[in-house]
Amino acid sequence: MLCSGFDSRVNDRGNRMRLPAGRFKYDPAMVAEPAAFRPFPYRITLDGGGVIETEATLVAVQGGPRTEFGGGSSYGGGMRICADAVPDDGLFDVTVVGDCSRATLLKVFPQVYKGTRLGHPRPCASWYDRPTTVRVLV
């Protein structure tokens, strides 16, 4: 699993917090991060496809031809950002969450644990491809 954007910033903030201890740092960090968060400009290239340039809240890449590269459909304690990922199908699942408001982030992000964010109307795109290379530049 490769993730870049909001969830990475939340993880970094949580790692720098002294309290609460352990895995409980993520929730308060998730509430605090939107105040400072701004979308990142990304340049995404998939084999055989064009270049996608966009500002996004989050970019996630899961799966691929080698299952040791993030096999499975979840990461980080059960977050299902690439909810439809199948670990052995040989596909890279690429999810891009577009620019969205702080309120939307706080409302939708918990839904990632259930994999239900796929039905949310905010800008979100998913690509499924059989590339040997996925490049994500921030």
Automatic annotation (TrEMBL):
SUPFAM superfamilies tied to this protein: NAD kinase/diacylglycerol kinase-like
Ranges of residues in domain YegS/DAGK C-terminal: 3-121
Pfam families: YegS_C
InterPro entries: NAD/diacylglycerol_kinase_sf, YegS/DAGK_C
UniProt-recorded name of the protein: YegS/DAGK C-terminal domain-containing protein
Organism encoding this protein: Streptomyces xanthophaeus
Upper lineage: Bacteria, Bacillati, Actinomycetota, Actinomycetes, Kitasatosporales
